[in-house]
Amino acid sequence: MILSALLTSVGINLLLCILFFTLYSILRKQPSNIDVYAPRLVAEGKAHSSAFSLERLLPSPGWVRRAWQLSEDELLSAAGLDGVVFMRIFTFSLKIFSFMGLVGILILLPINYVGKQLNAFDISDLPNKSLDAFSISNLEDGSKRLWVHFVALYLATGVVCYFLYHEYRYISLKRLDLFYSSKPQPHQFTILVRSIPKSSEGTSSDSVESFFAEYYPSIYLSHTMVCRTSKLQGLITDAKKLYKKLTDLKSDAHAQHKSRRSGFLGLWGQKVTLVDHYGKKLEDLEENVRMEQSDVSLAREELPEAFVSFKTRYGASTALHIKQSDNPAEWVTEIAPEPSDVYWPFFYATFLPRWISKLIVIVATIILTLLFLIPVAFVQGLANASQLVKWLPFLKGILTIAFVSQVITGYLPSLILQWFLSIVPPIMKIFSSMQGYISNSEIEKSACTKVLWFTIWNVFFANVLTGSAFSTFQFFLDFKDIPQTLAIAVPGQASFYISYVVTSGWTSVSSELFRMSPLFWSTITSCARGSDNEVDVSSVPYTSVIPRILLFVLLGITYFFLAPLILPFVLAYFCLGYVVYRNQLINVYAPKYDTAGKFWPIVHNSTIFSLVLVQALAVGLFGLKQLPLASTLTFPLIVLTLLFNEYCRKRFLPIFQTYSAESLIKKDRKDSSDPAMTDFLDKLVTAYRDPALMPIHYSQNANDHNTPLLT
Amino acid sequence: MILSALLTSVGINLLLCILFFTLYSILRKQPSNIDVYAPRLVAEGKAHSSAFSLERLLPSPGWVRRAWQLSEDELLSAAGLDGVVFMRIFTFSLKIFSFMGLVGILILLPINYVGKQLNAFDISDLPNKSLDAFSISNLEDGSKRLWVHFVALYLATGVVCYFLYHEYRYISLKRLDLFYSSKPQPHQFTILVRSIPKSSEGTSSDSVESFFAEYYPSIYLSHTMVCRTSKLQGLITDAKKLYKKLTDLKSDAHAQHKSRRSGFLGLWGQKVTLVDHYGKKLEDLEENVRMEQSDVSLAREELPEAFVSFKTRYGASTALHIKQSDNPAEWVTEIAPEPSDVYWPFFYATFLPRWISKLIVIVATIILTLLFLIPVAFVQGLANASQLVKWLPFLKGILTIAFVSQVITGYLPSLILQWFLSIVPPIMKIFSSMQGYISNSEIEKSACTKVLWFTIWNVFFANVLTGSAFSTFQFFLDFKDIPQTLAIAVPGQASFYISYVVTSGWTSVSSELFRMSPLFWSTITSCARGSDNEVDVSSVPYTSVIPRILLFVLLGITYFFLAPLILPFVLAYFCLGYVVYRNQLINVYAPKYDTAGKFWPIVHNSTIFSLVLVQALAVGLFGLKQLPLASTLTFPLIVLTLLFNEYCRKRFLPIFQTYSAESLIKKDRKDSSDPAMTDFLDKLVTAYRDPALMPIHYSQNANDHNTPLLT
């Protein structure tokens, strides 16, 4: 790729971004779009539609200022610690890439450019220069200038590690602060006990009761058994749908008087109004639900798992950490998630199937990650013009037009790739939920890690290695050659990744802001059904967003050393992302649960991986460039980086796993004098009841439309 | 090697064994050797010298019967659970090798022998047959008879896993039984706290006191700071030596009247008797010790580490398992060893140097293991006749005699190898003690693992791979070829390992029984100084013994499949070992501390490794023999074996790490009604005092010779 082509691509994408931003500035002020651009404010009742004015039709940068001025405390109260941590990925990246950008553009880039390897030293014809002239490939073999790169690598590693340490420390302190200032929360007092042994007499519930009453008499509070409620959940979903239909009918004055026959398929029988018909059906369904609920409680479809609550946080923590039974496969304890965070369909009854399914999921994930591109390439191969004509002969006429054919053959494969890529995060989420995690946040975290490695493999390694002789297994098996293979392949892809940052990165941010598909659906549905009162506020889709951001961190760190020209574009990506996501966090997304920063270790590990990757690359590259001393001297850097990581693991990671005795006891003592604790403990007893077992009152609500729902 | 050569070697070694056993039967009955063959009985005062009779000069098998009849309970009380576990390695091996021996000799061996690959089907000339005729190499490529081996492999894996499960289960139950029936022991109530933060005012001791009194007011009992006492220990050792000299002098009526001058080097000054002289010196030394002791206590050479004792076992376990401080690098808790098991010179003050030294040790161990043979081969190369003559010209005359030269060149290199090998366990022990373990048993366990991998690498892999093109790193780096490389190399070494089992294995057992070097030293010293009352009873040197036994398990399992002819010899080894070590456990060794079976997981892991090794070999071998289906079908066996191992890790390993809440609370409740507990808790307060800080009274004892030592 030559410089002018890059500039054209940048120009086009810049214009697109400006267009999106401008459109957003206007559209967000239209009352009809408020569900799309500020669903959170609507749900919180803070949205106010202003009267029509000319200002509404002009783009204004007010939202940028608001997003910018947001303080961290405001962010914390709005988006939880997870939101704060999420935004700190951006500030962290901005910090490291500012340093790298300065070093890269002011020092490394000129040095690369005056190299003679590619015979490019001719300043007159700059626009037609290949981008490779700005990369390290342009330096001749054995050049002493490579030592500048060597020093820059050491410096950059130092700076990144400093900021990593600083962030880890800051976030872990934040996490502790949050804990110290938190109100009593059910999950602090509760643990999940799994693999409860069956006692010969009595139910599992009895054996939980007797076990904890026996061994923890002074601190044991209560327990809630986990039941198998999949059937019940199906019924409740049906009831919900019916209730919605009914309220829609009632709000529509015209439809209220429609009628149908009560017999089979509405073909014969007595005529009844639709409202009565659905009302009757809803009542029947509710009766079913209630019967099933009492069935579940009576017939005891209990699983050998229970949430056990204690009177103190320290008590819960004690029971969590000590092996309960002489048989380590029984009475297995786990941290309980927040009640709203529990993933209810977890049902792996015993120890053995649980970890077998875990192993299967791990294998499936590895296979999906490594072999993903093979079926995709196959499908893409099928999606060319001649194949299409074979399948859908009626397209023949259109496809003979050269332009259409070009667009289809050029665009269809990439569309297919995009579609395949977009289904990966949901698939990984399904995998993670099969792994036996008990909370949505754990599933999300695990899926996030999976998607991260998937992305790094498929967007980085598979892409880079296709150029050189690429065979997945061969690459792994000859692992002594990895640095060299990478050193040959990676610099060649620099121009591809620069345009990748511009096209994929910038576009993803602006489309996040513009919310194309919600806007589309909202327009369609509002045309079809009129306005709908219920607004669905989702939480930030960390599973898909964080891996994408971390990919750009990886690209930035890797190409800082190889082709520093990428850095301004990466910096621009993070600047855009910083503003856009702050805006989205306060307007669009609302957290459903808070992991209190548990995503940070993923970010930390991924950054360390990027560092080690660039160091391994440097080892290979210095070797290729016939500077074996530099190659050897880079080894200690890898060791130091790994030691630093190990230190951070020991020093900070435990803080993200459990709280310390010190903090738990302090909190307990503070609470012991609080009269509100009695109330809290009373509520704690029922906090972990399966929502499917809650009484439902839809038909009552349907009759009395104004009362709020009780779910 | 041909069959007759093997039989000769077996014959010679058998005769040697019989000779050793016979000599032992006679020598053990001589009163002068009682210190050598029953030091434990002497120390316990159970040894009784019988009057002289003719019987004393005849070999008798009575000791074999006694060793054989010993019940497990007797063994438990005599040698602790460690002794029982140690003997169960033998019974376990006997069980699996009996099965393998039956299958191997009755089924596999004939099948191998009728193979035609090596053109060996000629029963007439049996004695001159190469041993390879009995190995799997003799089967022709693609032979259907290999399926018998395939089935045998599956069967053997099943049987080994069954017994492994059974043993793990049995030993973990024994461990729990032992705990339930144990008297209160200090280490059950105590934890070690490391990385105690320095408080601004006061000492570390104060901050321990205030921390635990604050957070564990109801269960905290006391604490003992760990001090730096290396100087003190040196002084005490000197005092001990001096005291021994003095008592020797006093018991020797003649020497008591010797005298020397009191001045410099005894050259001038007043004449004093030697007894007075040493007595004075001892008193001075003791004064020094006392001053140093009070120095240590006053000047507070405290380390930031302390043993903290609690009033209940459950309390100690709670404090052990929960992270104490918000900073995970402070107040790090560990299981406390038995007081007699504490390794006092542990001194790594802080968190960071501790794990850096750990990393260094790991690297050093790997280097020592992988590169051990290179310097050894170099030294062996130097130790040939011509080199010796060059260094020590006076040997020239002797070395020209052909026989002497042959013996030296033939024997010296192997002597050097033996000597190098014998210093490995002590080196590994030093490594392990540098790793920051706090107890002798942990050091021993860790050293045992290190020696095990060292042995397996250097005796098995390095030996096997020297035959084929051997390069350590290449072997590891091309790990997809490992099965094939092994499949080519390992069967070729069958005859070497058969004779290795006979020479090294049988000899090691009989020399263990005969105790050559203690016998030698005892004879020398008793000639020189007359009898010595102090008997040094050592504990079983698990570090060097267990790896050797496990090597034979590895050889047996591996060659069961390849060359079943090895099995009778392995079985003979374990039979001998069974009798000999039972005898040694009751007569020679006395346990100094009991890890309660913590060595078993090492045995388990090593056996699983052997299984996976033979399975990988089978994969390679079936491939070589052009039976790809069998090769593929062996893969599931590897997976199943690893899953089985994983299951055992989850199911049994936690039992070997900590006790459960259930068992701790039960024990605590049982004790709470015991009036002896008050006494015990009083003693507990001082149980973990550094022995170097105990008051010493040697000079007093020296004056009053009959009182026992107070150390």
UniProtKB/TrEMBL annotation, chains A, B:
One of its GO terms (cellular component) is plasma membrane. Residues 275-302 form a coiled coil. The chain crosses the membrane at residues 6-27, 96-115, 146-165, 359-378, 398-421, 451-477, 549-581, 602-623, 629-648. It is found in: Membrane. Residues 358-622 form the CSC1/OSCA1-like 7TM region domain. It holds the Pfam family RSN1_7TM. Keywords: Coiled coil, Ion channel, Ion transport, Membrane, Transmembrane, Transmembrane helix, Transport. Residues 5-167 form the CSC1/OSCA1-like N-terminal transmembrane domain. GO terms for molecular function: calcium-activated cation channel activity. It is a multi-pass membrane protein. Its main location: membrane. Residues 188-345 form the CSC1/OSCA1-like cytosolic domain. PANTHER family: CSC1-LIKE PROTEIN HYP1 (PTHR13018:SF109), PROBABLE MEMBRANE PROTEIN DUF221-RELATED (PTHR13018). Belongs to the CSC1 (TC 1.A.17) family. This is CSC1/OSCA1-like 7TM region domain-containing protein. It comes from Aquilegia coerulea (Rocky mountain columbine).
